[in-house]
Amino acid sequence: MFCIYLIISSTLSSVRYDSYGSSLFFIRYLFFFASFSLILSKLTKNDFKYISVFFILYLIFLCIDSFCQFLFGVNLTGIEKYHEVRISSFFADELILGSYVSKIIPIISSVIFLSNLKKKEYLLMFSIILSLTLILLSAERTALVIYFIFLILIFLKPVFSVINRIIISLVLLCCLSILAFTDNSLKERIIFLTMEQITAHNQINIFSHQHTTHIQTAYNIFLDNKLIGAGPKSFRYLCSEESYFINEDGCSTHPHNYYIQILSETGIIGLLSIILFYLWIIKIYINSKLRELSVISAGIIAIYFPLAPSMNFFGSWNLGLISITIGLMLYIIQSDKIK
Fold first, then answer.
1. CA distances from 106 to 56, 121, 146, 171, 329 (A)
2. Predicted pLDDT at 323
3. Is residue 313 predicted with pLDDT exceeding 80?
4. Residue 334: what pLDDT?
């Protein structure tokens, strides 16, 4: 139904031919979701064990590579540091290491609990600590927010024993303290730059002045397209039009917030659909008794937290992530019903 709605929104858009690129091909993610769900149904606990081991080794390798780039200016494959503060590892000039890690750690955590590995809690603790290290090295503030929301949510459920929660908290505190006192540039970006951006231009901004103007521009577009929006992928084309333009900071490929983008590009109906989806995930999290279900639902809540900056909702990476996380969550729910 949502696919049909997006096509209707694109058809009525003033930039319909550009918008069709997102709406017409949205259905491919349903096929991806169905294929992924089918693959999951064929896996055994032993298969999940091997996948878990692969993921953990992958995080270790990513951590080693990132530290090499942090300490020596180049990673293991010779990719140079592209930013004075931020580490990118194998992503080279794409500074998305922290975002990537913050969004795959819920998947890794769930897979660990689905496996027949021993000492699952300790393996998850190890993965969580590695993830924080990578996110801090990337200096991605949004990734750090997502990570801590995820961590708080799994601490509120019986995922870890009390003693393990204390151990994780102490280790994370040590990691934060070491990096804060040994790397001034990292501290400057995460703390001082954030405060400076929030109070820039003698006003209180939402995240930053640029983010604020994105939101204002998106809201202006919404006012002319309240019910079904201006069409998927339309923000990048409409933000420079005279009737919506605020300043150069207000124009980008997307408004950098999932919910603002949905409101602008798919209207009230689209926004209500996403809000209902989010509330459904929260309900699953609250009612979950399985550790793997608590972890994956907590991850989805954190990733799609309404008050955090975000990527393009209709981007391939985001829609692929939705397909995988929802597919994994529904697999866990269905497997529990079969039991």
1. 13, 14, 11, 19, 11
2. 87
3. yes
4. 85
265 to 28, 98, 297: CA distances (angstroms) = 20, 27, 26
d(Cα 142, Cα 102) in Å, to the nearest integer?
9
User: Mapping DSSP to helix (H, G, I), strand (E, B) and coil, where does residue 74 land?
Assistant: strand
CA-closest candidate to residue 295, choices 135, 125, 144: 125
DSSP 247-277: -GGG-SSS-SSHHHHHHHHHHHHHHHHHHHH
Please state the pTM of the whole predicted model. Answer: 0.93
Task: Measure the CA–CA gap between 259 and 276, rounded to whole angstroms.
Answer: 12
Dist. CA 99–CA 141, nearest whole Å = 9
Question: Given this model, what pLDDT does residue 206 score?
Answer: 79
What is the average pLDDT value for the chain, to the nearest integer? 89
Which of 237, 329, 277, 239 is closest to 18 using CA atoms?
237
Are 312 and 96 contacting, i.e. CB atoms less than 8 angstroms apart? no
- Residue 187: pLDDT over 60: yes
Through-space distance between the first and last CA atoms of the chain, rounded to whole angstroms: 31
Instruction: Write phi, then psi, for 80 (nearest 5 degrees).
Output: -80, 160
CA geometry: angle 19, 32, 110, nearest 5 deg: 120
Q: Looking at this protein, which amino acid is placed at residue 113?
A: F
pLDDT at residue 200, as a whole number: 79
The reported pLDDT for the residue numbered 337 is 62
Cβ neighbour number for residue 289 with a 10 Å cutoff? 9
Short-list 168, 107, 263, 134, CA closest to 254: 263
Phi and psi angles of residue 314, each rounded to the nearest 5 degrees, phi first: -90, 10
